[in-house]
Amino acid sequence: MIFNNRFTAGNLLADKLEIYKNDKELLVLSVPRGGVVVGSQIAYHLDTPHIAIVVKKLSAPHNKELAIGAISSDGSKIVRWDLLSKIGISKEYLTNEVLSKKKAIKILERKLQGNDLSSEIIKFKKYVLVDDGIATGATILAAIRQMKSIKMVGEKERMAGLILAIPVIAKEVYNKLSSEVEEIVSLDIPDNLISVGQFYKDFSQVSDEEVIRLLENKI
User: Fold this and answer.
1) What is the model's pTM?
2) What one GO molecular function would you report for this record (predicted)?
């Protein structure tokens, strides 16, 4: 399935989540930057609050699209140690990449003033966690770990009330993440997913300014 853009994907996901419309116990959380575009449409159609959960991909040195892991704003970290060993990435590189992404997270969080993740999560009982696609699962898993930490749910426990809403997700990752959440709502689950961008006609970069605008409900 090929989506015109992230807005289209968000609208299609919103249709599949219609049962949650006007649910006062529901919060939409989106991974910036692209995930916020998708999440904005879901939150708009469900008439639900919408905040960002800031997570950054840890990238391989010679291929920034290849995720060797991910880190969230609270330091929750996912590292694909098998991949590091396979392609020969040093621990020194990983350390520097983690520090770099921590700085990037702080910069983005400063821009998202008023986006108080912990206090917002505690207010609600149900959650829709959104990104624009999942190839390896590292980024979304770091986000799930952070949410579990806030809700005091064990790392290996399924988090009740947590729904993943993802336009496209690799089948292998879908199977792995199914034990982490209550439900995964997706529009396409391909056997092979090399790049999320291949499932979009328009997969252009999203600016911080657009993220802020969308989180302020300025659709």
Assistant:
1) 0.93
2) glycosyltransferase activity
Q: What letters, b where the CB count within 10 A reaches 16 and e where it falls short, cover 198-213?
A: ebbeebeebeeebbbe
Residues of the chain with pLDDT under 50: none
Question: What are the extents of the domains in the chain?
Answer: 6-55+116-215, 57-110
pLDDT digits over 63-73, tens only?
A: 888 899 999 99
Class of CATH domain 6-55+116-215: alpha beta
Contact at 8 Å (CB) between 78 and 51?
no
In this predicted model, what pLDDT tens digit does every residue of 182-194 receive, in sequence order? 999 999 999 989 8
The residues that bridge with 68 in the sheet, in sequence order, are: none
Domain spanning 57-110, CATH architecture: 2-Layer Sandwich (3.30)
- CA quadruple 42, 44, 48, 54: dihedral positive or negative? positive
